[in-house]
Automatic annotation (TrEMBL):
SUPFAM superfamilies: FKBP-like, Triger factor/SurA peptide-binding domain-like. Belongs to the PpiD chaperone family. This is Parvulin-like PPIase. It comes from Novosphingobium hassiacum. PANTHER family: PEPTIDYL-PROLYL CIS-TRANS ISOMERASE D, PERIPLASMIC CHAPERONE PPID. The keyword Isomerase applies. One of its GO terms (molecular function) is peptidyl-prolyl cis-trans isomerase activity. Residues 231-359 form the PpiC domain. Keywords: Cell inner membrane, Cell membrane, Chaperone, Isomerase, Membrane, Rotamase, Transmembrane, Transmembrane helix.
């Protein structure tokens, strides 16, 4: 219910807390591989900013910007580094780095610290550092750090800064409340009722009757090329290597089979497992007494519970596992008794055990001839996987030596296939509903991280079974679509552009007439063309909030209606020059909220969160001011120039 109102109050509140936790590491492991390198030697000095006694280096800033850009490019494949930086990427990333470092410096000054064990606990939680068993893998950790050009020190420092921010900012926001009087005032806005009218003045209603000539259309296209940008696309050439690619794999020999049987003799030997019920008593006399009592009825469980004792069950125990849990004497006694009978009381370090054998499972084992088929299958699989691994090593050596994909495939007798042009999200260019084959899907992200065509790489697609040799076949940069291919769309856009100017003039006439008190029905005639019928509006903020929750957004004219003063009229431009809106607000009926109303309690909780965010934001600003921040404009400009390929002036 409060979603709309909450979004209207958003500032940098949540960002102050959330983004401080997302630094270099979070970005690096949440996005594609970082492809940029060579950040050293940036003109303009090696310092982007000084924060207290610490500094943010230009290389560090460049690395963080590249990481953030790669993450955003996953969402917007056509995004360029220049667009990212011009759109606030530079300021956003640098400000977050400054905030994190300022909080770390302030914490250090006041005796606060983040322990190594706490950092360790955060590292093991990162999924990218986990092995196939879902647990932290040191080798995976070291490998990923090497791939992304990071050091253990950088990872730990980054996480420590995020943890310090969490320790300082979250308590500032915790438990905050807004004064009840203020809650009543703001909550009343949620039940406020507004009535008015929305007029639509579409651009096409004022579009020129005749189509543009070639010169006019070309001039319009050239002036708006960014509107017609096609995202970067790439073809991926690949050859799959699997067990079918292997030749002349020798069959397991009798000696190998015999050795494997001998190695796993414990697996194939006859064995016995027993499920037992046991009761442990402190003395031999007590054990003998319980055994005698249970022996009369054969029910150890009943006899034990009658004496206030609780038996336990040990299922599927071998002699060795039972011995490990109790003692050799207890295990020997249990395995000497027949199924369904009581074993002689025996002693362990815990006391005297009275045991009943509930069930016996006997495995007769397997002879060499009986085990041979499964041993042959296992050895054959191992040989094929070993051969595949050796083949992968040879391919990797050829890749490292600069051998091209076609030559590698030819030497192995493989067929090279190619995908159609793909976007970074794996869809086929020009066919949004068609995705790349699942076989090639895992290669897309890495292929879009490559800097140029014709540089083969090796990738494992299915552990120990399938890998691919692949490269970028053709790289087509983000460019405007050719005019002849999109002529109809450009012609329509030209008509909208021309009509938009006239539609705006018509909207201004209507607006001026409404300001003089002219009725809506009369004012609309001043447009000179037929317009859509006016849309009457009668709505409260609760309905507006419900609309936002259901549709994800509120139509801009409605949002404007709820931001206007009573008795006023406003003009609003529609998206993509499709037209204009004239919004007229007739009256406002204030809402009435009492402290006993359910909406009051809900609003109090919501506004408490907002107030807490403001407290955290205030603390963030105060910390930055106390620590002191100096930006090095020359260093920042040098990083921008380097990332956008602009030569230093």
């Amino acid at each position: 219910m409060l979603g709309f109102f909450r979004s209207a109050l958003k500032s940098r509140v949540g960002i102050a807390i959330a983004l401080l936790f997302l630094g270099l590491i979070a970005l690096a492991f949440a996005s594609a591989d970082i492809t940029g390198s060579g950040f050293g030697g940036v003109a303009g000095g090696d310092r982007a900013a000084k924060v207290g006694s610490a500094r943010i280096g230009t290389a560090e800033l460049a690395k963080s910007l590249t990481s953030a850009f790669e993450q955003q490019r996953q969402k917007s494949p056509g995004l360029t580094m220049k667009q990212f930086l011009d759109g606030g990427g530079m300021d956003g990333v640098l400000n977050d780095m400054i905030d994190r470092l300022a909080i770390a410096e302030w914490g250090k000054k006041h005796g606060l610290a983040v322990s190594d064990r706490l950092v360790d606990s955060e590292i093991v939680k990162i999924p990218a550092f986990q092995g196939p068993d879902g647990k932290f893998s040191q080798s995976a950790y070291e490998q990923l750090l090497a791939q992304r050009g990071l050091t253990d020190k950088e990872v730990r420092q980054d996480l420590a800064q995020g943890l310090m921010a969490r320790q300082l900012l979250l308590p500032a926001a915790f438990g905050s409340q807004m004064a009840p009087e203020a809650v009543v005032r703001y909550a009343a806005l949620l039940t406020e009722q507004r009535t008015g009218t929305i007029l639509s003045v579409p651009s096409l209603a004022f579009a020129p009757a005749s189509a543009p000539d070639a010169a006019m259309l070309t001039a319009f296209y050239n002036a708006h090329k960014l509107r017609y940008m096609q995202p970067e696309r790439r073809t991926i050439r690949y050859a799959l290597v699997n067990e079918a690619s292997l030749k002349n794999i020798p069959a397991p020999t009798d000696t190998e089979i015999a050795n494997r049987y001998k190695l796993n003799s414990a697996v194939y030997a006859a064995s016995e497992q027993r499920t037992v019920t046991q009761v442990i008593l402190p003395t031999q006399a007590a054990a003998n007494a319980l055994a005698a009592e249970a022996g009369k009825t054969g029910a150890l469980d009943t006899a034990a519970r009658a004496k206030g004792l609780v038996p336990s069950t040990l299922a599927d125990q071998t002699a060795s596992t039972l011995s490990g849990q109790t003692s050799k004497a207890v295990a020997d006694a249990a395995f000497a008794a027949a199924s369904g009978t009581l074993a002689a009381p025996a002693k362990s370090g815990l006391g005297w055990h009275v045991i009943k054998v509930d069930a016996v499972k006997r495995n007769p084992g397997k002879t060499l001839d009986q085990a041979k088929p499964e041993i042959v299958a296992a050895l054959t699989l191992e040989k094929r996987r070993a051969a595949l691994s050796d083949l992968a090593a040879k391919v990797e050596e050829q890749v490292d030596n600069g051998t091209g994909l076609a030559d590698i495939a030819k030497s192995l007798g493989l067929t090279v296939a190619s995908t159609p042009p793909l976007l970074a999200n794996g869809t086929v260019f020009g066919k949004a509903d068609e995705k790349v084959l699942d076989t090639v899907g895992p290669l897309v992200q890495a292929a879009f991280a490559m800097e140029r065509e014709g540089e083969p790489q090796l990738a494992e697609l299915k552990a120990g079974e399938v890998f691919a040799i692949y490269d970028v076949g053709q790289l087509t940069a983000a460019t405007p679509a050719p005019l002849d291919r999109i002529k109809d769309g450009v012609t329509r856009d030209w008509a909208l552009d021309q009509g938009s100017v006239r539609a705006k003039a018509a909207a201004d006439k209507i607006l001026a007439a409404l300001a003089k008190g002219t009725p809506v029905a009369e004012a609309i005639k001043l447009a000179g063309v037929a317009l859509p019928a006016p849309q009457p509006i009668a709505m409260n903020r609760q309905q507006l909030s419900a609309m936002q929750q259901q549709q994800g957004q509120v139509p801009p004219p409605l949002a404007l209606l709820f931001a206007m003063a009573e008795g006023t009229n406003k003009r609003l431009e529609g998206p993509d020059k499709a037209g204009w809106y004239v919004v007229s607000l007739k009256d406002i009926v204030p809402g009435d909220v009492k402290r006993a109303d359910p909406i009051f309690a809900q609003a109090s909780r919501e506004f408490g969160t907002v107030v807490g965010g403001e407290y955290a934001e205030s603390l963030r600003r105060a910390i930055r001011d106390e620590v002191g921040v100096e930006r090095n404009a020359a260093g920042i400009k040098a990083v921008r120039n380097q990332l956008t390929g602009v030569s230093a002036q």
